[in-house]
Amino acid sequence: MQIDKATAADPPRLFEIWEAAVRATHDFLSEEALATLVPLVRELLGTFAPLYCLRDVAGAPYAFIGVADGNIEMLFVHPDRRGGGAGRALAAFAIGTLGATRVDVNEQNAQAAGFYARMGFRQVGRSARDPFGHPYPILHLELA
Predict the structure, then answer these.
(1) How far apart are CA 104 and CA 134, in angstroms?
(2) CA distance 8 to 14
(3) Dist CA 135 CA 72 (whole Å)
(4) Which of 44, 61, 90, 127 has its CA 20 to 30 A from that of 18?
């Protein structure tokens, strides 16, 4: 799998991936909660750099990751491509190339917590609320 940097043209597609992935995995979020995240995520995807993507044969992203200061800030795979190794490839790239050693996940997102456990991360802390103050507990994970 070829991983490359996102381009200035990618944010609209990255947003589509984010929304589809969140709808598939974050069933604990209400539509109202999701709606409050939309403008924040749109802005973040336009300003966070660098983002790295996996692309299909036509060159369209289907998965992406962002790392800052050793922390995996985002990793999303389009639901149509889940189970094919995209998340594992991006996480391994983040760890091996970008020096990622930490990640935060929603406690209610058992799929993500299990994925990161399989990648070697262990829980080192917990926050009762997400960074926006919502009652969605966050698990703080580090590589073991």
Answers:
(1) 15
(2) 11
(3) 21
(4) 127
The overall pTM is greater than 0.90: yes
Cα–Cα distances in angstroms (integers) from residue 49 to residues 35, 60, 129, in the given order: 24, 18, 26
Token digits of residue 19: 């929304």
| Burial (CB count <10 Å: 0-12, 13-18, 19+), residue 81 | middle
Q: Say if residues 64 and 6 touch (Cβ distance below 8 Å).
A: yes
Q: Rounded distance, CA 82 to CA 137, Å? A: 24
Please write the tens of the pLDDT for every residue from 32-61. 888 988 999 999 999 999 999 999 999 999
Taking only the tens place, the pLDDT of each residue in 74-109 is 999 999 999 899 999 999 999 999 999 999 999 999
Which among 37, 73, 34 has a CA at the least distance from the CA of 52?
73
